[in-house]
Specification:
5-stranded antiparallel sheet; mainly beta; OB fold (Dihydrolipoamide Acetyltransferase, E2P)
């Protein structure tokens, strides 16, 4: 589960404009949900439809570029995920 407080602090520190860099912490292909974390400690959930190449697949451990988008309920999620490099493990 994403760290809502950490994500909020991250948004306050850097706003929602421009791409961010992070690492995919987890991705459940069956549910289509995942979590990307940034070095500052924020964690942002994302849905498979937010993966920019439309593959609906991404590996845990992948470095990604992403944007922050508003989600229902006053939350923030990762959007437009683009893998920058692959990890050494198998896809989730």
């Amino acid at each position: 589960m994403p760290d809502e407080d950490g994500a909020f602090v991250e948004v306050l520190a850097g706003g929602t404009q421009g791409p961010r860099l992070g690492t995919v912490q987890a991705f459940d292909a069956e549910r289509g949900r995942g979590v990307v974390v940034v070095s500052g400690g924020g964690a942002f959930g994302f849905h498979a439809t937010a993966i920019a190449d439309r593959s609906r697949q991404i590996r845990a451990g992948s470095m990604v570029s992403f944007t922050i988008v508003a989600a229902p309920g006053g939350r923030f999620e990762a959007g437009g995920l683009t893998a920058l490099e692959g990890p050494s493990e198998e896809p989730c």
